[in-house]
Amino acid sequence: MNFHFLDIKKFLPHREPFLMVDQVLTIDDEHVSTCFHIKPECIFNEEGVFNEAGMIENAAQTCSSIVGKSYFDEDDLEGCSAKLIGFISAIKKINIKACAKVGATITTKAYIKSRLNTDQFTMCSIDCFITEDGKELLSCEINLVIQELKEHSK
């Protein structure tokens, strides 16, 4: 599958100006990598720097895409086969070494550490790393809860 043509907006509920992922680079059942180009109009632009809150939001959106993937049909490139809602239940640890400047493109990689699926939701723990040109900016462990929104009949 060519992920360069995958429209991330069809799979994440976030919209401008709060969408912090531009493109999925790779994704499978255990790993995802994304990129994000930091524009001057970014809401997390703080005096020319992509601030810490923006980096955490980028990490969370990247992490949710790996868990959310399992809810969608394999051939669904339009995001029509499921509607999801997700929450950060905990940020277990975080290390921010530096922030990227506006104009930079960051790459974010996430790896599932553990996952629990129930009939109502999925809980998982994910390691996430943000880099710019190979230099690590952030590492963290995030716990997420993802739930599929079921249509209720009247």
UniProtKB/TrEMBL annotation:
It holds the Pfam family ApeP-like. It comes from the Bacteria. InterPro entries: ApeP-like_dehydratase, HotDog_dom_sf. This is Uncharacterized protein.
